[in-house]
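Issue 218. Parser rejects a valid record. Input:
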Amino acid sequence: MSPKAYKALVAERDSLSTRTETLEAQVFQLQADTMRLHRELANLKDKMADLRNNNSKLNSNLDASSSKLTRLAADLEKREARLKEVEDILHKRDEAANALKNKLQQALLGFQQSGLTVDIRNGKVYVSLADKLLFPSGSIIIDEKGKAALQQLAAVLNKEPDINMAIEGHTDDKKVINLGQIKDNWDLSVLRATSVTRYLTETEKVDPHRLTATGKSEFQPIDPAPTNEARAKNRRIEIVLTPKLDELYNLITK
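Output the parser choked on:
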């Protein structure tokens, strides 16, 4: 072989060796890139699975929240309807109380200078009669002036069957002295309340099922001042008139 041909073969061998090294380096790099891409693909698959899982949870939470919102909206609607019913009934009560107050004020106009008042508190009508309008001092026997006032009161109440009545006796803070069977202010307040109740039911024929008699003694004064004027205000019979609220009771107990 000629020297020239030999040199050509050596040059070709060296060139092939260089290309081989380059290709091996490229193969190594491709293998490294392939492994990296496999890792990235695996990570992406994990993230995709997490996203799908989270999306499923979000959809589940969204459905639950939507259902809860629907229930709350329905409950709110029911409550608003219930509130409207209660407000309507209370409005009727207040209208009835005002109408009754006006009727009583007209019927008892002649007694208002003698210690009779009519007012409304918390939806109830209070007819307050000073003790001097009904009873002689220290007595539980209703006098003629008191009977006349109660007769006018009963005439109105007998036309209002949906009104319940509580007859409350009140005294001042002076201790009872020498009143026979009446031992103290409790006795005096209760016995005066029952005297009024008995007169209304037995003489004026007010339905006894509508009445309750109670004694408050000296413990619910109008004026707590230790003066004769204040004590005179506190000695009284209060007739508390309450419209029957069966509708409201039934609504509340549903």
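Fixed in the parser; the record now loads. Strands lie at 116-121, 124-130, 163-170, 211-215, 236-243.
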